[in-house]
Amino acid sequence: MGKGRLEAFSDGVLAIIITIMVLELKAPHGTGLDALGPLMPSFLSYVLSFVYVGIYWNNHHHLLHAAKSVSGAVLWANLHLLFWLSLLPFTTAWMGENHFEALPSAVYGFVLLMAALAYYLLQRLIMSTDGPDSLLKKAVGADWKGKLSPVFYAAGILTSFWQHWLAQALYVFVALMWLVPDRRIERAIKH
């Protein structure tokens, strides 16, 4: 299978994930600004998850752009990643509806952790499929963001039972860390 088909399928799934998340947002029952207050947790959860889906979409695009080919193992690893990302609408809604309480925040962090591990597996399988001259392997290098993210997610999961606002801060921090443009793959492709 060509990598274009894999990318198109993944793009479609990510678009559906965002659509489901936005459909979970409810309109206020009033016309004043005070009617928006109770909806803020749901809206903030949506914004954070939208940013995460955007980060995965962007990095997934670069990942596949650097790949030479796609194997059966890569296909399954990609589905594994999409599975965890498909749980974001549920955990986003649960966390927002319950004002970032401990268990919903921990489950949200767990889904983020599993998606990060699934992405790491996908990345490694693409490198393995492409062999010793893997462009992706050269571009990724030490991948400090990829290694630190699961640590922060695990800390967020544990912290959510102690100070759930701190767990949210850790999830936001990781998102901000990934929002800083990472040009490693783009540079490797140009050379």
TrEMBL record:
Subcellular location: Membrane
Keywords annotated in UniProt: Ion channel, Ion transport, Membrane, Potassium, Potassium channel, Potassium transport, Transmembrane, Transmembrane helix, Transport
Alphabetized InterPro entries for the sequence: TMEM175-like
The name this protein goes by in its record: DUF1211 domain-containing protein
Membrane topology: Multi-pass membrane protein
Keyword Transmembrane on entry: yes
Reaction equation(s) it catalyzes: K(+)(in) = K(+)(out)
Protein family according to the UniProt entry: Belongs to the TMEM175 family.
Residues annotated as transmembrane: 35-57, 69-90, 102-122, 162-180
One Pfam family per UniProt: TMEM175
